[in-house]
Protein backbone atom coordinates (compact mmCIF):
# COMPACT_ATOMS: atom_id res chain seq x y z
CA UNK A 1 0.00 0.00 0.00
CA UNK A 2 1.46 3.32 -1.05
CA UNK A 3 2.06 5.96 1.60
CA UNK A 4 1.90 8.80 -0.91
CA UNK A 5 -1.36 10.71 -0.98
CA UNK A 6 -3.77 10.81 -3.85
CA UNK A 7 -3.83 14.29 -5.38
CA UNK A 8 -7.33 14.97 -6.71
CA UNK A 9 -7.63 18.18 -8.71
CA UNK A 10 -10.88 19.69 -9.92
CA UNK A 11 -10.63 22.10 -12.84
CA UNK A 12 -12.56 25.34 -13.16
CA UNK A 13 -12.24 29.10 -13.28
CA UNK A 14 -12.11 31.22 -10.11
CA UNK A 15 -14.75 33.68 -8.97
CA UNK A 16 -18.52 33.84 -8.66
CA UNK A 17 -19.15 34.82 -12.29
CA UNK A 18 -17.87 31.37 -13.40
CA UNK A 19 -19.32 29.30 -10.55
CA UNK A 20 -22.24 27.79 -12.50
CA UNK A 21 -20.39 27.33 -15.82
CA UNK A 22 -20.05 23.94 -17.49
CA UNK A 23 -16.28 24.50 -17.41
CA UNK A 24 -16.48 24.45 -13.58
CA UNK A 25 -17.80 20.89 -13.34
CA UNK A 26 -14.47 19.83 -11.79
CA UNK A 27 -14.88 22.37 -8.97
CA UNK A 28 -18.44 21.15 -8.38
CA UNK A 29 -17.30 17.54 -8.01
CA UNK A 30 -14.49 18.58 -5.64
CA UNK A 31 -17.04 20.38 -3.46
CA UNK A 32 -18.97 17.10 -3.16
CA UNK A 33 -15.77 15.25 -2.25
CA UNK A 34 -14.89 17.92 0.34
CA UNK A 35 -18.25 17.30 2.00
CA UNK A 36 -17.52 13.57 2.09
CA UNK A 37 -14.04 14.18 3.54
CA UNK A 38 -15.61 16.41 6.20
CA UNK A 39 -13.32 19.37 5.68
CA UNK A 40 -12.99 22.82 4.22
CA UNK A 41 -10.69 24.15 1.54
CA UNK A 42 -7.85 26.40 2.70
CA UNK A 43 -5.50 28.59 0.69
CA UNK A 44 -2.18 26.92 -0.21
CA UNK A 45 1.00 28.63 -1.38
CA UNK A 46 0.75 26.69 -4.67
CA UNK A 47 -2.05 29.03 -5.85
CA UNK A 48 -4.77 26.53 -5.01
CA UNK A 49 -7.42 25.88 -2.41
CA UNK A 50 -6.56 22.59 -0.71
CA UNK A 51 -8.20 20.15 1.67
CA UNK A 52 -6.11 17.38 3.22
CA UNK A 53 -8.00 14.41 4.61
CA UNK A 54 -9.22 10.91 4.02
CA UNK A 55 -11.46 9.80 1.21
CA UNK A 56 -12.72 6.24 0.77
CA UNK A 57 -10.19 5.23 3.45
CA UNK A 58 -7.22 6.68 1.56
CA UNK A 59 -5.04 9.71 2.30
CA UNK A 60 -6.11 12.38 -0.17
CA UNK A 61 -5.37 15.98 -1.05
CA UNK A 62 -8.26 17.73 -2.80
CA UNK A 63 -7.31 20.82 -4.77
CA UNK A 64 -8.94 23.57 -6.80
CA UNK A 65 -6.39 25.80 -8.59
CA UNK A 66 -6.97 29.52 -7.98
CA UNK A 67 -6.14 30.51 -11.53
CA UNK A 68 -7.83 30.38 -14.88
CA UNK A 69 -8.30 26.98 -16.45
CA UNK A 70 -5.59 27.44 -19.08
CA UNK A 71 -3.01 28.13 -16.31
CA UNK A 72 -3.85 25.07 -14.17
CA UNK A 73 -0.54 23.33 -14.83
CA UNK A 74 1.58 25.54 -12.58
CA UNK A 75 -0.46 24.96 -9.42
CA UNK A 76 -0.91 21.24 -10.18
CA UNK A 77 2.85 20.74 -10.61
CA UNK A 78 3.57 22.75 -7.45
CA UNK A 79 1.08 20.63 -5.48
CA UNK A 80 2.43 17.38 -6.91
CA UNK A 81 5.95 18.41 -5.90
CA UNK A 82 4.88 19.66 -2.45
CA UNK A 83 2.93 16.51 -1.55
CA UNK A 84 5.33 14.17 -3.40
CA UNK A 85 2.40 12.53 -5.17
CA UNK A 86 3.49 10.39 -8.14
CA UNK A 87 1.73 11.06 -11.44
CA UNK A 88 -0.12 7.72 -11.23
CA UNK A 89 -1.79 9.01 -8.04
CA UNK A 90 -2.97 12.25 -9.68
CA UNK A 91 -6.66 12.41 -10.63
CA UNK A 92 -7.91 15.39 -12.63
CA UNK A 93 -11.69 15.97 -12.69
CA UNK A 94 -12.82 18.05 -15.67
CA UNK A 95 -15.67 18.87 -18.04
CA UNK A 96 -15.74 16.99 -21.34
CA UNK A 97 -17.57 18.13 -24.48
CA UNK A 98 -17.37 14.80 -26.29
CA UNK A 99 -19.38 12.93 -23.65
CA UNK A 100 -23.16 13.30 -23.31
CA UNK A 101 -24.38 15.42 -20.43
CA UNK A 102 -24.47 13.43 -17.21
CA UNK A 103 -22.18 10.62 -18.37
CA UNK A 104 -18.93 9.98 -16.48
CA UNK A 105 -15.91 8.41 -18.13
CA UNK A 106 -12.51 7.52 -16.70
CA UNK A 107 -9.18 7.12 -18.40
CA UNK A 108 -5.46 7.33 -17.84
CA UNK A 109 -3.22 9.32 -20.12
CA UNK A 110 -4.01 10.41 -23.64
CA UNK A 111 -4.27 13.77 -25.32
CA UNK A 112 -5.97 16.92 -24.13
CA UNK A 113 -8.73 16.85 -26.79
CA UNK A 114 -8.65 20.64 -27.02
CA UNK A 115 -9.10 21.09 -23.25
CA UNK A 116 -6.83 23.97 -22.21
CA UNK A 117 -6.69 22.87 -18.57
CA UNK A 118 -5.43 19.41 -19.50
CA UNK A 119 -3.00 20.89 -22.02
CA UNK A 120 -1.52 23.15 -19.31
CA UNK A 121 -1.22 20.29 -16.80
CA UNK A 122 0.41 17.89 -19.28
CA UNK A 123 2.87 20.58 -20.37
CA UNK A 124 3.79 21.55 -16.79
CA UNK A 125 4.19 17.96 -15.63
CA UNK A 126 5.95 16.80 -18.78
CA UNK A 127 3.68 13.76 -18.45
CA UNK A 128 0.16 12.88 -19.66
CA UNK A 129 -0.17 9.62 -17.75
CA UNK A 130 -2.42 10.92 -14.96
CA UNK A 131 -5.96 9.70 -14.32
CA UNK A 132 -8.93 11.69 -15.58
CA UNK A 133 -12.52 11.70 -14.44
CA UNK A 134 -14.40 13.21 -17.37
CA UNK A 135 -17.73 14.89 -16.55
CA UNK A 136 -19.87 14.94 -19.68
CA UNK A 137 -21.30 18.34 -20.59
CA UNK A 138 -22.35 17.43 -24.15
CA UNK A 139 -21.81 19.32 -27.39
CA UNK A 140 -22.97 22.90 -27.99
CA UNK A 141 -26.17 23.38 -29.97
CA UNK A 142 -26.01 24.30 -33.63
CA UNK A 143 -22.91 26.27 -34.58
CA UNK A 144 -22.20 27.66 -31.12
CA UNK A 145 -18.49 27.97 -30.39
CA UNK A 146 -17.46 25.22 -27.93
CA UNK A 147 -15.39 27.76 -25.94
CA UNK A 148 -18.47 29.93 -25.46
CA UNK A 149 -20.60 26.88 -24.58
CA UNK A 150 -18.38 25.72 -21.71
CA UNK A 151 -18.31 29.27 -20.29
CA UNK A 152 -22.11 29.33 -20.04
CA UNK A 153 -24.02 28.11 -17.01
CA UNK A 154 -25.72 24.74 -17.11
CA UNK A 155 -29.26 25.08 -18.49
CA UNK A 156 -32.31 24.94 -16.22
CA UNK A 157 -33.02 21.40 -17.44
CA UNK A 158 -29.40 20.32 -16.82
CA UNK A 159 -29.39 21.90 -13.35
CA UNK A 160 -32.22 19.57 -12.29
CA UNK A 161 -29.77 16.65 -12.58
CA UNK A 162 -26.54 18.53 -11.78
CA UNK A 163 -26.27 17.60 -8.09
CA UNK A 164 -26.93 13.94 -8.87
CA UNK A 165 -24.36 13.99 -11.70
CA UNK A 166 -21.73 15.65 -9.47
CA UNK A 167 -22.38 12.95 -6.82
CA UNK A 168 -21.94 10.24 -9.46
CA UNK A 169 -18.64 11.74 -10.62
CA UNK A 170 -17.51 11.92 -6.97
CA UNK A 171 -18.43 8.24 -6.63
CA UNK A 172 -16.23 7.54 -9.66
CA UNK A 173 -13.28 9.29 -7.99
CA UNK A 174 -13.76 7.14 -4.89
CA UNK A 175 -14.03 4.02 -7.07
CA UNK A 176 -10.60 4.87 -8.54
CA UNK A 177 -9.16 5.11 -5.03
CA UNK A 178 -10.62 1.83 -3.82
CA UNK A 179 -10.58 -0.44 -6.87
CA UNK A 180 -8.36 1.07 -9.53
CA UNK A 181 -9.04 2.20 -13.07
CA UNK A 182 -10.28 -1.00 -14.70
CA UNK A 183 -12.79 -1.82 -11.96
CA UNK A 184 -14.08 1.78 -11.94
CA UNK A 185 -14.40 1.79 -15.75
CA UNK A 186 -16.44 -1.44 -15.58
CA UNK A 187 -18.97 0.38 -13.37
CA UNK A 188 -19.05 3.84 -14.97
CA UNK A 189 -18.70 2.86 -18.63
CA UNK A 190 -21.46 0.25 -18.46
CA UNK A 191 -24.38 2.68 -18.83
Task: Just name the CATH architecture.
Answer: 3-Layer(aba) Sandwich
The number of helices is 6
What is the number of independent domains?
1
**Helix content bin:** 25-40%
Low-confidence stretches at least 5 residues in length (pLDDT < 50)?
none
Q: Spatial order of the strands in the main sheet? A: 2-3-4-1-5-7-6
Percent of residues in β-strands: 15-25%
Question: Could you give the topology of this structure?
Answer:
Elements: E1 6-10, H1 25-37, E2 42-44, E3 48-55, E4 58-65, H2 73-83, E5 90-96, E6 104-108, H3 116-125, E7 131-136, H4 146-150, H5 156-179, H6 181-188
Parallel strand pairs: 1-4, 1-5, 5-7
Antiparallel strand pairs: 2-3, 3-4, 6-7
Helix pairs in contact: 1-5, 2-3, 5-6
Site (Discriminates between blocked and unblocked aminoacyl-tRNA): 13
Keywords: Cytoplasm, Hydrolase, RNA-binding, tRNA-binding
EC number: 3.1.1.29
Task: Describe the protein's architecture and organization.
This protein has helices at 25-37, 73-83, 116-125, 146-150, 156-179, 181-188; strands at 6-10, 42-44, 48-55, 58-65, 90-96, 104-108, 131-136. The mean pLDDT is 95. The protein has one domain: Peptidyl-tRNA hydrolase (Rossmann fold), CATH 3.40.50. It is an alpha/beta fold and 191 residues long.
Compact summary:
It contains 6 helices and 7 strands; from the N terminus they run E-H-E-E-E-H-E-E-H-E-H-H-H. The protein is α/β, with parallel strands linked by helices and 191 residues long. It has a 7-stranded mixed beta sheet with strand order 2-3-4-1-5-7-6, with helices on both faces.
Amino acid sequence: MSTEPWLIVGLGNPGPSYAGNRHNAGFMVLDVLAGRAGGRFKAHKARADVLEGRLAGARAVLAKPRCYMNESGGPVKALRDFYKAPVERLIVVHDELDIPYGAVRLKQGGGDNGHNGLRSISRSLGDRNYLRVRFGVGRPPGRMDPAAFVLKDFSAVERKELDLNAERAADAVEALLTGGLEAAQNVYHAG
